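Q: Got a minute? One more chain.
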Amino acid sequence: MRLLAVDARHAVLAKPYLGPFAVYTSSQVNDRQSRQTRTELDEVVFVEIPWLADPAAAALGKIPRKEYPNASLDRLYALGVDAFRVAQAFASGAPDSLEFDGATGHLKLDASRQIVREGTLLQFRGGDIVPIASR
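A: Always. Here it is, folded:
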């Protein structure tokens, strides 16, 4: 396995030198690149927020959307959406439990009173971005 800690442009440059290993990276590799670039990143796996991975998801349908010039600003907006929802839950004091599907993933208040977030696992395949479970 190889872990890339670079953006999409650098991932495309590095991938041919990584050999026949599984390649994982952050969502920063997914920044609205061309189909050609996505093809060059074939089989690379990354975790993405539902806001970008599945914008049509039912949990996101009521949240207003705005077009931003890059995916990083979309991620920041999604973080704000979820932070507001968490703040609302804590407005009257710490809740006993909190769990919801948000713009940044599935969020849950765990036993140690920390918010745990689970994103969506995706992969570049044939120039497309697909959920990892759809093999």
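A: The chain has a mean pLDDT of 91.
Q: Perfect, thanks.
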